[in-house]
Amino acid sequence: MMKKNEGRLKHELDTEKIRKDFPILARKINGKPLIYLDSAATSQKPQCVLDAIMDYYSRHNANVHRGVHTLSGEATTMVEEARDKVANFIGAKREEVVFVHNASEAANLILYSWGEKNLHRGDEVVVSLLEHHSNFVGWQQLAAKKKMKFKVIDISPEGLLQIEGSSEHNERGVVLGSLATLLNPHVKVVAVTHVSNVLGTIVPLQEVIAMVRRKAPEAIVVVDAAQSVPHMPVSVKDIGADFLFFSGHKMLGPTGIGVLWGRERFFASMPPFLYGGDMISEVYLDHSVWNRLPWKFEAGTPNMAGMVGMGAAVDYLSTVGMQAIRDHEKRLVSYALPKLEFLEHEGLIKFYGPRSAEKRGGVLTFSVVGVHAHDAAQVLDSQGIAVRSGHHCAMPLTQRLGTSATLRASLYLYTTKEEIDLLIEGIRQVNNVFRP
Ligand SMILES: Cc1ncc(COP(=O)(O)O)c(C=O)c1O
Asked: pTM of the predicted model, to two decimals?
């Protein structure tokens, strides 16, 4: 008789074992087993991350970088070890890893520190239509304030970033077009996501950055990696951007902790973002001297338990293996795509984004025809299925898709094929409820 799990391919994740590490996955919602398909909003946390946070508070808690007593030394060692873990995880130097509170704060740090100092009237800023608001709105606002041209890289009908092509046009006074048409020597910033949180589109960053370096040699490249670092191997060395950021809570870590990676030469010449304790080395009546990197950008008491928890999350992800996680999500997407396309063929749903698992991450976005996304999400919730509904903090993209709200089922290392099957059944149920 075949033993349980024997049918698994050699490199497949043992999701049954992984799921046991996540206490919340044992919960029932509305009397049904929880099917958590909202990891792109925030991931669930394994017991080892919860334990690391509890251990920090119950045994080592003290303020860092200040005290000479034993606990302060232990806490400092723990948070700096967490920095080393994160640096190794993304192939960075530890001086280039700044802890912030989330991806949004990281984007603001670049804007307020680098942007305020280095951008001027007449410069041009290019962002992509795939951006989450956190890598879009701030650039839009700074461009308006400094009277800079704000330009947007368009997407193809399939939802891929338009790199080549000559289809430049105006919409609400903003130029939209392919990356190739938007770049010129006046462009000083290119802000682009690695993986879209709405369409799952994977942006070929190396190709994008090579073009930016050729056509806009003075531009910095800012990468939003909030949906890539948790799901696939990411090396800042291989990517070659200037800044890259992500949040801990989307990669099994706690909330309130995120990372901004930046090239040392930029960080060194940038003014502090926030003033306060820890970010200074000397203060006089008339002037102050900033701390060394990375602490120059970490004002005040940091989220120490958050750093420790993020370090534990990185350990967990590294043990499972980032390529194994990417392969698992690719398999799930390949499994889900034909099922969703069949529902589309039947006229039940409209599916958005690339139709190939190679070109997308584990984010599946669709609308149930004739049913508002929030209503559909409520019916799914009644079956224990948690999906996100709305504009997913990417309104320009959602508008471009010709809608105001969609449903998003997002996958992670603990998602199973059985859960995809139940999602498909759940969508049929939504259709039965609203269009009997
Ligand atoms: C692509 C992307 N960027 C940025 C963010 C913002 O992350 P946070 O809310 O942790 O700042 C999100 C969150 O959904 C995201 O999906």
From this structure: 0.96
